[in-house]
Structures are given as C-alpha cells and as structure tokens.
Amino acid sequence: MSVMCGHSDENLKKVEIEFNIKIIPRGNLVSIIGPKNNVRKAVFVLRNLYKSVENNNQIDYGELKGFINMTKTINHESTSEKFVESIFVKAGKKLLRPRSKKQRDYFKLIREKELVFCCGPAGTGKTYLAVAFAVSMLKAGKVDKIILSRPAVEAGERLGFLPGDLKDKIDPYLRPIYDALNEMLPFDEVIKKIDSGHIEIAPLAFMRGRTLSNSFIILDESQNTTPVQMKMFLTRLGENSKMIINGDLSQVDLPSGTKSGLRQAINILSNIEQIGFIRFQDTDVVRNSLVSKIVKNYQKFEMSEGIGDKYISKASYED
Length: 319
Known about the structure:
By secondary structure, the protein is α/β, with parallel strands linked by helices. The chain has eleven helices and ten strands. Strand 8, helix 9 and strand 9 form a beta-alpha-beta unit. The relative contact order is 0.13.
C-alpha cells in the first residue's frame, strides 16, 4: 500500500490533480471523493497500481501516467481492472505493458503487420518497445536474429574524425540501442548474443546488398535517412521477418535541403494494407513529465514558424 501511494503520498497527489478529486488514505483503505466518472477513473488507476506493486513492478512516473492515459480510452462500467494486464510483452527480465492507447495500438500493429512505421517525439517508447518485441521473439525462437540499425548522422556537433577501429567509431551513434538491450537482458548475455551473431547492431550503410530473412529488424532515427537510403533499407525485408521503422520528423539532422526518407516513404506507401502506421503525440510521452511539456511547446512554436513535423497524409495517421 505504501509503495502504491508513493513517498509522502506523491502518487495519490498526482491522481488527485489529474482527475480533480480528493483521495483520503486511512491505513489500508482509501476514500475517493469527487464527480462519479472521475472517481471511477481514479479507482481504475489505483487498482492497477496496486496490482503492479503486487507483481513487483517499479512504480515510476511512466507507469502512473500509463494507467492515467488508459482511463481516457475505456468504458469503466464494463471493463475490469485487468484491462492493462491483458496486453503485455515479456522481454528477457522485463514484463512490459502499454502505457497509453497509442502504445497499445503500437503493440497490436507490431503483432499483426510485417512492416510498421512509427513516428513521434522523444520519450514515447518507440525504440524501447520495438526492442522489447524483438527480444521477446528471439527468446521464443520466432526469429533467428535481431538486426538493429540507425543512420550515422551527427546532430549538429560536427564531431570530425573519431579515433579507434570501426566499432569505436560507430558505437556512439548506436548507444541508445545498447541501452535498451541492456535493460532487458543481462550485460554478458547481450555481449554473447552479439558475438554469436544473434544480435547485430550496425549503421545503415552496412545493410546494402543484403536480404534480411528470419529476423526482427529495427531502423531507429529513420528521419535522418535520405530517400535513397530508405528505399534501400525497406527492400532488404526477407521471408519470415518483421521490420519496424522509427523516427521523429521534428528532429531531422540531415543537411539543409536534403529530403527525409521517412517522410517520403510514409507518403508513398500509405495505401499498402500490409504496412502499419502509427504516430505518437506529446500526450503519449512516458518519460519525466517535463519532457511532455517541452515537446508540446516546441510543437506549438514549430507550427507557428511553419517548420518541424508538418502534416503528411491523412491515411498515414488515422487514429
């Protein structure tokens, strides 16, 4: 109960603010006062938080925000509190559940489609959830290997010549992928699977000329691909493989005047039934709550300036 409530009841206070209610903890009981519909939503959130604690899950801002987001998309009179637990993916030492409606839709698309385009701001779980699915399928023997790639494009720093061998030069660009893997698998297991070829982490340029079969393939930071690179990568898809293309069109680091391969691919391929498309918004951010506010304000500024993630095509982003 104390873990569910949080330090100095901070979790309860966040739920109070979100639903405009009053929560009064009394020992192992909680009283909730407020509008009927808001009370139902608060009950849903607290019951799921409690069950999450029972399953030894860590309760952080993302977990709490996820349950709150779920209340906006369900019927509380007919839906049991097991709603969130009914959708999950087990990735090594992690059991992951969706933390927003869009994450739930993302889970569903990855399961159903061979190829999925996922766009959205930082902190929405695009890469993390894709890596989780990849690890899950590898552990279950549904694929033979995981292939993780991203374009080696500098984010404006002009890093210049980097010393060391090829691995030393490309590792900084691929660090976010290593971080996601290390959260789901023990460090020594990640190294072992990389050495054995069951996990391959490589820059986009290394994909040319290959056919990627029996694999779970993830292209991260795909907004920094050129149209030629994107076409090359998409046509690597082989038999019994799944490909996830992640990117944030508001953070394109390509040279001025160079078109984003991600933006072009979404427009060209939006009418193909076997391809899934999903777009996260600032409301789907599950990192620190400040990140959501930062993203939202940047989006407002970019819209007013006519820059950033402009409207692409209705077919690509239907809710």
